[in-house]
Each structure stands twice: as C-alpha cells, then as structure tokens.
Amino acid sequence: MVKRKHKPKPLKQRKIALERVETLFKEAEKAFKDNPKLSNKYVHLARKIAMKYKVKIRSPLKKRFCKHCYKYIKPGVNCRVRLGQKQVIYSCLECKKFMRFGYKKKYLTTSK
Ligand SMILES: [Zn+2]
After folding, report:
1. Is residue 23 part of a domain?
2. Does residue 4 lie within any of the structural domains?
3. Residue 111 reports pLDDT greater than 60
4. I need a surface site. Which of 48, 55, 59, 69 has the fewest CB within 10 A?
5. Does residue 37 belong to any structural domain of this protein?
6. Ligand 1: distance of its center to the CA of 95 in Å?
7. Distance of CA 98 from the midpoint of ligand 1 (Å)
8. What's the rounded mean pLDDT across residues 73-84?
9. Is residue 61 part of a domain?
C-alpha cells in the first residue's frame, strides 16, 4: 500500500461535507421518535463524513450524540442532563457514561 500524504480536501468539498453532516443530524432528530436505530446510523454516517473531510462537527450537534457509544441522545429520553457549577453533565443512558460540557460565557450573560 502506498502511503498517502494527508492533503486537506478542497474547500468546496468540505462545505458540502458540512452540509451533509447538518442534514444527517436533522434526519436523525426526525427519525429518532419512530426509529432510534436509524438515528444512530445517521450519527455514524455524519461522523464518518466529518472524519473523512476533516470538518468539525458544530458544538450544538456534538451534544446530540454520545461521545462514548456514538448513539443519538435526546435529553429526557435516553440521556439525563445535570447542571453543575461550571459545566453541564450529560449522562448517556445507553452506555451509562458521562459527558461534560463547559458553560459558555455568552450563556451566562444572557438573561432569561
Ligand atoms: Zn453512550
């Protein structure tokens, strides 16, 4: 096998990849109610695309799947959300592991 150098993909392709990731998460959300397995498949595909094109998954989307078992998670359904002092703790009920997200400053300053 020839060792390939990692060249970043053209910007145009990466943009398309990002769009596809977004779409897959939207579809995952829609499918979740009737078919959670399908949602997991979409998450899997979205991650694969993101890795292949080296694009980052936006942070709001990162909270939509478990970083341990990569299953689609929905707060109140298969995920529990706890608010800590400086972080939000998501516990995935599928694999019983935790994920922590720090609060962002802009969330602290916005008043409800
Ligand atoms: Zn999990």
Report:
1. yes
2. no
3. no
4. 59
5. yes
6. 4
7. 8
8. 94
9. yes
The alpha carbon of 12 and the centre of ligand 1 are apart by a number of angstroms equal to 33
Domain span at residue 26 reads 11-109
In the reported structure, the alpha carbon of residue 70 is separated from the centroid of ligand 1 by a whole-number distance in angstroms of 6
Ligand 1 centroid, distance to 40 Cα (angstroms): 11
SS3 helix, strand, coil % of the chain, rounded to 5? Answer: 45, 15, 40
Alpha-carbon distance of 99 to 97, in angstroms, equals 7
Cβ(32)–Cβ(74) under 8 Å?
yes
Model-level pTM?
A: 0.82
How large is the average pLDDT for residues 58-77?
A: 95
In the reported structure, the alpha carbon of residue 53 is separated from the centroid of ligand 1 by a whole-number distance in angstroms of 24
Distance of CA 37 from the midpoint of ligand 1 (Å):
14
The first and second tokens of residue 106, run together, are 């802009």
Residue 85 has pLDDT above 80, yes or no: yes
For residue 97, what pLDDT is reported? 97
Contacts 24+ apart (CB under 8 A), 84-92: 90/63, 90/66, 92/66, 92/68
For residue 86, give both structure tokens.
């400086």
